[in-house]
Amino acid sequence: MNLYGNAAEVLPPALLAEVQKHWRGLLWVPVPQKTEHTAHVSKVIQSGLSAQDVALILGISLPRVYQLASKLGAANPYARRKRHV
Questions:
Q1: Cα-flanking dihedrals φ and ψ of residue 79, to 5°?
Q2: Residues 61-84: tens digit of each pLDDT
Q3: Which of 9, 20, 21, 84 is deepest in the core (most CB within 10 A)?
Q4: Are 57 and 65 in contact (CB under 8 A)?
Q5: How many structural domains does the chain have?
Q6: Going by C-beta distance under 8 Å and a sequence separation of 6 or more, which residues neighbour residue 81?
């Protein structure tokens, strides 16, 4: 696994040209913060939308929606609740 790549090989030409307007030389690109992403995913899952709609909005598979929702514990809107008789 490479830790770096050639920008000309990985970026669309228009984006590469825009970056070149602002910077020459080595450029470190930070990884997005997972906490921000996780918070966004949690909000979308808890928004009241169906799991299918969440999958479409987030661009992930339906099983992945259920997997991520299961990590929410009691806040999982798709969990089947056991009824106490």
A1: -70, 140
A2: 999 999 999 989 999 999 986 666
A3: 20
A4: no
A5: 1
A6: none
